[in-house]
Every structure is written in C-alpha cells, then in structure tokens.
C-alpha cells in the first residue's frame, strides 16, 4: 500500500486546516487507517485512527474535540480536519494503515506514508 499525505502548511492558532491521505495499491476498505505526528526533537505520537468503515474514530487526548478524522472508501482517502490548532500541534503528520486498528493506536502501522508538515503560528 502506498500512502501520501498532503494539505500541510502554515496555520494560525485557532484557525483550521485539513489534511488528506491518498492510498493506493491494495483494497483500501480492508484497512484501518490512522494519523501520526512527529514534532521536531520529539518522538512520534498517535493522533487518530478509524476502523475500516470509518465509524467511531479514536483520538489522542491531546486532539480530542479539536480534530476530526474521516475516510471516503470510494475515493481511497482519509482526512484529518484540524480545528482550533495550537502551536504545540506543529509537526510532520503521517498517515498509516493496518488491518487492525489496535496496531495503529500503538504506533505499529503496517504501512506508513510520507508526511506533510503543519506549522501553527500564534
């Protein structure tokens, strides 16, 4: 599976930004999907995950209530809507995939895409 994240850039704190992840190479609807991020000098951390059908997304506490993850199986796409971003959300955001959502939550995706940089200014 090939994954490519896009949509990053400069955002104002309190504004909004939407990231996209395009998947190809395998039956997308069989995979749970997730978002991860890595800030400069910090370890990679889990952000959000959704199951194959896109119901009941699961979020890290740090983004809960501000970020919304969704997927469109017809288009092989997942999205991360970032509302009210904070300066501490600045990071490179990656999307990942695995047959099991649990593996995404524990930072063990089977597939991992190139990231997109999000910079949030105050």
How would you explain this protein's 3D organization?
- It is a single chain.
- By secondary structure, the protein is mainly beta.
- Helices cover 4% and strands 51% of the residues.
- The chain has one helix and eleven strands, in the order βββββββββαββ.
- The chain has one helix spanning 101-105; strands at 2-6, 9-12, 16-24, 32-38, 45-50, 58-59, 67-72, 77-83, 91-98, 111-112, 116-121.
- The strands form two sheets. Strands 2, 4, 5, 6, 9, 10 and 11 form a seven-stranded mixed beta sheet that branches.
- The mean pLDDT is 95.
List keywords for this structure.
122 residues, mainly beta, seven-stranded mixed beta sheet, four-stranded antiparallel beta sheet, 1 helix, 4% helix
Mean pLDDT: 95
Order of helices and strands: EEEEEEEEEHEE
Number of helices: 1
Level of helix content? under 10%
Q: In angstroms, what separates the terminal alpha carbons?
A: 37 Å
Unreliable spans are none
**Strand percent estimate:** over 45%
* Major sheet: 7 strands, mixed
List the helices and strands and how they pair.
Layout: E1 2-6, E2 9-12, E3 16-24, E4 32-38, E5 45-50, E6 58-59, E7 67-72, E8 77-83, E9 91-98, H1 101-105, E10 111-112, E11 116-121
Concise summary:
This protein is mainly β. It has 1 helix and 11 strands, in the order βββββββββαββ.
């Amino acid at each position: 599976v090939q994954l490519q994240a896009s949509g990053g850039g400069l955002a104002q704190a309190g504004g909004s930004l939407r990231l996209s992840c395009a998947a190809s190479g395998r039956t997308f609807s069989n995979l749970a999907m997730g978002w991860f991020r890595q800030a400069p000098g910090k370890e990679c951390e889990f952000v959000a995950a959704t199951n194959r059908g896109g119901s009941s997304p699961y979020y890290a506490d740090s983004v809960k209530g501000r970020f919304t993850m969704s997927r469109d199986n017809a288009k092989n796409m997942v999205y991360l809507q970032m509302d009210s971003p904070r300066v501490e959300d600045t990071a490179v955001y990656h999307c990942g995939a695995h047959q099991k959502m649990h593996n995404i939550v524990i930072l063990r995706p089977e597939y991992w895409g190139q990231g997109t940089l999000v910079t949030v200014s105050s």
